[in-house]
Amino acid sequence: MIHIFQNYWGTLLYGLGQTLLCSLLALVFSLILGTLFALLEESPSKVARGIARVYIEIFRNIPLLVITMFFYVVFPLYVLKMNGFTAGTIGLTLYTSAFIAETVRAGIQSVDSGQMEGARANGLSFWQAMRYIILPQAFRYVIPPLGNQFVNLVKNSSTLAFVGGFDLMYQGNVIASSSLETIAAYSAVGVLYLVITMPISYYMRYLEKRLA
Amino acid sequence: MLQNFIDAYSPDNLRYLFGGLGITILVSVVSIIGSFIIGSILGIIRYVKIKYFSAIVGFIIDVIRNLPLILILFFTYFGLPNLGVKPEIIPAAILAMTIFESTMLAEIVRSGIQAVDSGQMEGARANGLTYWQGLWHIVLPQAMVKMIPAIVSQFISLVKDTSLATIILLPEMLYRSQIIYGQNTNYIIPMFVAIALMYFVVCYCLSVLARYLEKRQA
């Protein structure tokens, strides 16, 4: 395995970079989208709640790969040409945002309802109360599950390999087929994934314990 | 456009797609059963803290949990032949899914057991049960009830994750839809609609079940 690192470190590093870039982009956008839909679900408007529910159910119950393939295969035909990396990142963002919406909503619900009542009684509007009173408290509860979502995101970014996204998994396949050392190549890729995911998931477990 | 849908959903194509659904369900059900059994055992091993053994098992669980499933699929299908074992596609997919999902379940089981009040075990021991009797008859049944919603949502992920096995050419829905629209590009949208719907129906039913169980338990 060590000689795989020696011979292919450039390829592996490039793949690692693409994986990290895709995961970070998807994290930022899905955090924004997810929070937005969580707020819609908690809003007083029935229409908004319906829209959020449909969005979340669709993206939670369809496999990530189908969503990604949709943006890679169907989208370029009728709408806009995009490369594998973009298609993969969009798919990953939409898929993850549904899970983040559920996580954030659980966080909002775990904040004592007296907080909202107090804020409203003090003259804040519903959205002001959400923004200044509820969300800041909710995010504290939400950090460990969000960290776990990020670990999932890094793992799920391996679907980029299906659409030619040049991520770590893709490079692993390239190395495996050019070096013919399948096990060594995949082990090297595995080690690089673990370098990212293991510390985060251990840290999140620590945070969970401390919060509990 | 409408004509494309009508042509794409010809009886032959539909039969072929539903055959893919059958394989998805077959792989899912076998992996669910396998990973439930293995995951429960691993979770208990991790919980009871047998010296060294539990720590090693725990570390292996953490390593597998933090790897992408696609990598494990590659290991079983392309890596095992290098070690002299050449699994067929369906067994390879089931093996990879079972290995991966049982580590996910092990974590659910472990945290479920930990969530049971420690007084239950103390009470059981005080009433003369051995540690294992207490675990089996008192703690586990209570933990199982708490874990069910999390376990069902893990099974939803499992069903969705079977689509990743197209990469080792498992002839399930996604793979078969690609074969159909590979013959006629007009069928691309109808095929995506069809498989998205099929996955959605299966997974949505499971998530309704998960929510029902969650409510009943609360």
From TrEMBL, chain A:
UniProt entry tagged with the keyword Kinase: no
Topology in membrane: Multi-pass membrane protein
Listed Gene3D superfamilies: MetI-like
Compartments, as annotated in UniProt: Cell membrane
Keyword Transport attached: yes
CDD domains: TM_PBP2
Sequence intervals crossing the membrane: 12-40, 61-79, 183-204
Keywords: Cell membrane, Membrane, Transmembrane, Transmembrane helix, Transport
Record-annotated ABC transmembrane type-1 domain positions: 16-204
Family from the record: Belongs to the binding-protein-dependent transport system permease family.
NCBIfam families in the cross-refs: HEQRo_perm_3TM (TIGR01726)
Protein name: Amino acid ABC transporter permease
UniProtKB/TrEMBL annotation, chain B:
UniProt xrefs under Pfam families: BPD_transp_1 (PF00528)
Domain ABC transmembrane type-1: 21-210
CDD domains named in the record: TM_PBP2 (cd06261)
Transmembrane annotation, as ranges: 20-45, 52-77, 89-109, 187-213
Subcellular locations according to the entry: Cell membrane
Gene3D superfamilies recorded: MetI-like (1.10.3720.10)
Protein's UniProt keywords contain Cell membrane: yes
Keywords: Cell membrane, Membrane, Transmembrane, Transmembrane helix, Transport
UniProt keyword annotation of Signal present: no
Topology in membrane: Multi-pass membrane protein
UniProt xrefs under PANTHER family: INNER MEMBRANE AMINO-ACID ABC TRANSPORTER PERMEASE PROTEIN YHDY, MEMBRANE COMPONENT OF AMINO ACID ABC TRANSPORTER
Family: Belongs to the binding-protein-dependent transport system permease family.
Protein name, as recorded: Amino acid ABC transporter permease
Organism listed in the record: Levilactobacillus fujinensis
